[in-house]
Amino acid sequence: MKRILASVTDGKGFDIGLVLLPLAFLFIMSGLPLVYNVVMSFQEVDMFSLGSFVRPFVGFKNYVDLFSQPETRPILLNTALFVSSSIAGQFLIGFGLALFFWMNFPGASWLRGLFLVSWVMPGLVVGAIWNWILSGDFGVLNFFLRETGVIEGNIFWRSDPNYSLWAVIIANIWLGTSFNMILLSVGLSGIPKDLYEAAELDGANALQRFFTITLPMMRSTIGAIIALGLIFTLQQFDLFAGITSGGPNNSSNVTQYWAWDLSFRQYDFAKGATISVIMIVFVMLASVVYVRSTRHEVRG
Amino acid sequence: MTLQIELNGVNKFYGAFHALKDINLAIEEGTFVALVGPSGCGKSTLLRSLAGLEKISTGEMKIAGARMNDVPPRKRDVAMVFQSYALYPHMTVEENLTYSLRIRGVKKAEARKAAEEVAATTGLSHLMKRYPRELSGGQRQRVAMSRAIIRHPKAFLFDEPLSNLDAALRVHMRKEIRALHDRLNATSVYVTHDQIEAMTMADHVVVMRDGIIEQQGRPLDLYDRPANKFVAGFIGSPAMNFIPAIVADDGAQVVLDFGKTQAKLAIGSRLSPGTSLTAGIRPEHIKIVAEGQGAFDVPVGIVESTGSATFITSATQPELTIVETGRGGAKSGDIIGLAIEPAQLHLFDTATGRRIEPQSGQVGIEPLRHLHLAGHAS
User: Fold this and answer.
1) Which single residue of A29, A99, B80, B115 has CA 20 to 30 Å from A11?
2) Which residues in chain B touch residue A195, judged by CB atoms under 8 angstroms apart?
3) What sign has the CA pseudo-torsion A217, A221, A225, A231?
């Protein structure tokens, strides 16, 4: 007993203790619910069996049922479109801004800090604000597009099935751009200045320097950001709740919102869990990319 | 010989800070020039200006006869070896070497052939597929140099390329760089804070301080006839001894002032009596003789021996450093006599630090009559 105590205060026991604590936390708060969710997707769950762990095992029935539903395909496609467009928009605008602030003009860091404001805003508040901006009758976005001659008549962003998903995508791009910009800025500032000087003396012009030095040196940062972007956009729930509620007629519905809707509004917990499991697969893939790209950091 | 690099009245300002002051420099084709000076003297700024990484404020800069003031770095056709090497970390050695060729659109096979040729001469052939992080410091250094060589530039610019290597490798690479320069018949400008590197490698040494060129010339000329006290103290190791002195009444001797004692020394020519100046003697030019046999006697303070040489520091104020080859018998506390050849005595104006030529017999300053010279011991 004394030896164990000594090891905890001064030795390997202390290290093990440091590892065990967060591991226990992770297991209880994340691991168990995850496993529970996976188990639930293979069970028959209704309001009455919700309280017990022992429920009829149904195999892949939930999955088969889910994919036979007519709305599943459009919702999965919506999710793919939402994720890819959001990431593309956030990344491109974020990278552009990061490069812009990298020029280090007077006030650059101050302005860059200001951009973080969008990131600290709660999603529901962002949704509420974008509701006004996107409003069909008096929205400022319609006003702007109309006055610049891009559109003829008003677009009813939130209620037109052709635009409802894009309404959320636009808001999500706005929300996530600053995060992309900050991470990319960090990556940019990590590239040694003398590499650019060497490349310049080697005859490379600005465009060649960007493609031969900046982009390859940013590879790990970009990989990490895309992976994190995938995780964050698959998590995005508030904006759907705040702007379209997945409607009209599921035209802006995505898996993460649908899973919540099935579980907590239609009380079909098994289906909700099934969708979650499908999402877990994608998030896992993103995590692998993230871990790999941060591990293979290229530093001189 | 044609002039490869020309600087006429070059000035560089960073805001109010005057980094380069009226620099004039002419470098002939095939010359190895060393820019040397303490940190902050402007030597790196000068080199970076040559590369085009810094823009000069006024004056004219020419490379191979063409005006370069407003030419961007990529069009100057000069190659630079950075202190940090600045190797592209995401490229293999071969890709590092061929980068400039690929940028210029040289065909892949041709670029590879050129890289192999250069690598063969610098001993990198077996490392072509490695990444910079997998190389040792010396190997990285070679890659940096090879990357410059492959371009056949108009001039090589070296920015303290050896300062990240350990001492033994530094001495080795010193010779290698010089041999490379000779073989390529290149024009090189080499920045260093190490005067030994400058002296051993260069044909032409430029000593800088506070943005001005203090003196330039052949290495041994700088050693033999430093133009001022700064150059005298900077060139040579261990550094030159400086002793305040006054020209004696007869004008043919100086009286060295060691505070409590004085010593008379012949200067081999005539100066105005009473002139206050600074005498400089190189430690290796002082000969130790028996007490009373030399020009003057000093007590021995510290004795340090490296085996091949003995460094003796006198217990005087100011201290004198004396280098004796071999192992002398002097011990701390001994009284030794010192002999100094008049020709090896350097005299400097105390106020301006400028060299006074004893041979000419001319002194540019008024003699200071009010100084008492009575009571000097000889």
Assistant:
1) A29
2) 86, 88-89
3) positive
Q: Is B80 within 8 Å of A192 when comparing Cβ atoms?
A: no
Q: Copy the structure tokens of residue A30.
A: 């994340």
> Chain A to chain B, count of Cβ pairs less than 8 Å apart?
68
User: Cα separation of A223 and A246, whole Å?
Assistant: 30
Please report, rounded to a whole number, the percentage of residues in chain B having pLDDT higher than 90.
59
Distance (Å) from the alpha carbon of A250 to chain B's nearest alpha carbon: 46
Q: Look up the ipTM and state it.
A: 0.82
- State whether A201 and B78 contact (CB < 8 Å): yes
Instruction: Determine the average pLDDT of the residues in B361-367.
Output: 40
Residues 6+ apart with CB under 8 A from B220: none
The pTM of the full predicted model, rounded to 2 decimals, is 0.80
pLDDT computed for residue B188 by the predictor: 94
A202–B99 C-beta distance less than 8 A: yes
Would you list which residues of chain A are within 8 Å, Cβ to Cβ, of chain B? Answer: 192, 194-195, 197-205, 208, 212-213, 216-217, 219, 298-300
Residue that has been written with the tokens 């001022």 in this structure: B228
Express each pLDDT in B223-267 by its tens digit: 999 999 999 999 988 999 999 999 888 888 888 888 778 888 888
Contact between residue B256 and residue B247 where contact means Cβ atoms under 8 Å apart: no
Pairwise CA distance, residues B73 & A198, whole Å? 10
The Cα A163–Cα A153 span in angstroms is 14
Whether residues A213 and B88 touch (CB distance < 8 A) is answered with: yes
Mean pLDDT computed over A123-141? 89
Report the length, in residues, of chain B.
Answer: 378
pLDDT category at B358 given cuts 50, 70, 90 is: low
Average pLDDT, chain B: 88
pLDDT score of B216 more than 90: yes
